[in-house]
Queue: 3 jobs
Job 1
Amino acid sequence: MSDELWSLIEPLLPEPGPKLVAGRPRVPDRQALCGILFVLHTGIQWEYLPQELGFGSGMTCWRRLAAWNEAGVWDQLHLVLLKRLRSAKQLDWSRAVMDSSHVRAARRGPKAVPARSTAHGRAANTTSLSMARASRSRCR
């Protein structure tokens, strides 16, 4: 991760709380973020994150992701990046898509017409062919 990107992300991260239990030192946030990005990019499972890469354990990265998500870090980062792209005039709105499924309808649509019953005119059963026609063992 570049120093420029890290300088945007670092101020958004919450301060870690005090350690309740003595043990291993806390993995630095930048390393944990690189571990999160590695898992999300490669698609491997959290528990298979290689410790040799120096990101900490997969569980550490997963917990950090959950804590940052709860703190709203990703929403804040999204706004920071949008502001930065707008100021640099690097947003191409011609490729934007709006999903209308998230727009509340002002009025109700027309009432649905009840489906026609098919009980009176039953269709032919196509699954019960005679065994002579459906048999595959006709070779003699």
Job 2
Amino acid sequence: MSTKVFVNLPTTDLERSKAFYTGLGCDISPEFTDENAACVVWSEDIYFMVLKREFFATFTDKPIADPNESVQVSVSFSQDSREAVDAIIAKGLAAGGTEPKPAQDYGFMYSRDLDDPDGNSLGFLYMSEEAVEKGPEAYMAEQGSAS
């Protein structure tokens, strides 16, 4: 059995969060969704548990950070192309998300960030297969000698 990843995210508006994530193309698992939480299916192995802040607080004794004020974690997803990165950002913006900073193009990697309506940070990136295989420095050195 492969490892399943569950990312827990606080929300102040569960219905708005469900609409945002379905706007990105995710499904909601009804078996693990109720009035306190929604199970967002990102892929066969990756899930978001979007939890009302009060319910989220029952799982920890630590304070729950306001994701609009501080970042505790940013979850990033690789995409198959720069165009795929741009497309998912467009979906997220249309679904009520915000882009906290401009796209970042490092030559070997193209990256854009998206905050959900609660301020939780998601990243989307494309990295060329050659950069993945050789590493960023070797890839960029080759690109520099090719120009």
Job 3
Amino acid sequence: MSRDNQLKERWEQLVDILSNQFSQGEDLDLDAIIYLIGVQELGKVHREYKKDEKLNLMHIAICRLLEPYGFYEFEFFDDEGWPHYRVKEELPTLKAGEQSVLMKEAIVSYFIERELIK
């Protein structure tokens, strides 16, 4: 099986699992899954977030997802428990489709690590 097909299958499996768990039958999109990862990384799942906090959660998720690729490094948790990362290497300029593939690969790896998918 080609790498692209494997990623596609794993992505579809992951979207099905997360959509069944977190939405009422509607498939979650990439941004929604990134948001869920941010909430997971923060560890405060049962609360409402303001708009700016939601953006911060997505930023946390992106940092965490791209950390294994060498773009970010975890630094510390602040007094409120929010993780902070520093930039290790600037992200290369990518086209929208390339960004999407990179994020899907990182998300799939994240959930393989957590044994939600194989």
